[in-house]
Amino acid sequence: MGLFGGLVLGVGIMMGAYWAYETLNFGGYWNWDPVENAVYIPWLVLIAGLHTMVVYKRSKHALRTSFILVITTFLLVLYATFLTRSGILGNASVHSFTDLGLSGQLFAYLAAFVILSILLLVRHWKAIPATEKELTTYNSEFWVFIGVVVLCLGAFQVLVTTSIPVYNSFLGFIGIKSNMALPADQIAHYTKFQLWMGVGIALLSGLAQLLWYQKNDKTKVVNALSVPLILTFLFVSLVYMLGKIDFIPKVDTFPYFVLLFVTVFAIFANLSMVFTLIRRKVNLSGGAISHIGIALMLFGMLFSSGYSNIISKNTSGLLYSRDFPDDINRDNVLLFRNDKVKMGAYDVSYRGRYFEVKGFPEYVNKQLLFQLDDVHQAIARADIKYKDKVHFKTGDTVDVYPENTYYQIEFKNRETGKAFTLYPGHR
């Protein structure tokens, strides 16, 4: 069941990343939104727990650690539910629910399971088998433990930052004013730490897999490491010599180079184990294959950054606002109504602002409406028609939903002449 839970949670994360990349199209697959983080944290801890279970099955180590990690995973899932549904992230996440008045019940539900879990674990602690046998650095279990620590530290770092709104709420509840805020640039903040977690995981996924079947033999360990290391040096050197990674913006910086190196090492190390295990017993190669998948995912994340091509650079010399971050002013072109701006292969034109009007099947051009003091009402400046049918006559008062405001933008390919509009269609 643990494997199935890890699979379902992992697939859910991948589906969310795909949705963000393909549907939202905000320029990436992970934005470090608090709700995204809320599901990422228990997945990391669960993966750590699965590894300690494998260690226990082989060497009878770490059963107590496995209990702690599995229970923590369950509690973190409940905590994620609390974060998402309580409304506590209302101002911090685009995915969070508003306050539905359930925060008290959700907190009581979470607290009850935390207390119950601790009591049950304490009660049965002595009944859980433990071993006093010490591990050496040539034990593969030792390196698996190091990997578990890296995963848990990565989860802890995300948890600490993601929970900032919870700290504010709790301190406010006990009468202490707190204005702690999430980092202004959350992507840079989390990447600064999680990049090194990726380095650790890539390195250890290759190292532990090589050591797993070497029976603590120093000579065999050295021999097993030598081929993947040589191949890694050759591959990375060749890539640099051929200049094939110029499109990775940050690979020349030390952290990104290290990530590239250990990711390639993880791929070669696990591939070598797959070839070795296929000759012995094919069903033993599952761990190495899954580690190759993780390494390829890290490799893809590193290289995908080079495919970003910002075609909306602001070359007008004008700023949106001096209060905006430099990247917002730099990477987003200013559009003025009916002016044509070149953007990549397209001519882009802003056609105006449109409102949703109650009882009308299309969005209505703001130019046809005179806004009243009540922002939810407006007067029609002219007849408002849809397919030759007049829905509102000049002077009629209409109900509008200003929160549903759309900006019609036309893109026209300069070569083909084909055009499309970023504007909601018929409802």
From TrEMBL:
Q: What is this protein called?
A: Putative cytochrome c biosynthesis protein
Q: Which GO terms describe its cellular component?
A: membrane
Does this entry carry the keyword Transmembrane helix?
yes
An example of a Pfam family matching this protein is Cytochrom_C_asm
Q: Where are the transmembrane segments?
A: 40-56, 63-82, 102-122, 142-160, 195-213, 225-242, 254-278, 284-303
Sequence similarity: Belongs to the CcmF/CycK/Ccl1/NrfE/CcsA family.
Key words, A-Z:
Cytochrome c-type biogenesis, Membrane, Transmembrane, Transmembrane helix
Asked if Signal is a keyword of the record, the answer is no
What domain of life does the native source organism fall in? Bacteria
Q: Name one GO biological process term.
A: cytochrome complex assembly
Which terms in the Gene Ontology molecular function aspect does this entry carry? heme binding; heme transmembrane transporter activity
Q: Which InterPro entries does UniProt cross-reference here?
A: Cyt_c_assembly, Cyt_c_biogenesis
All copies of domain Cytochrome c assembly protein, residue ranges: 4-86
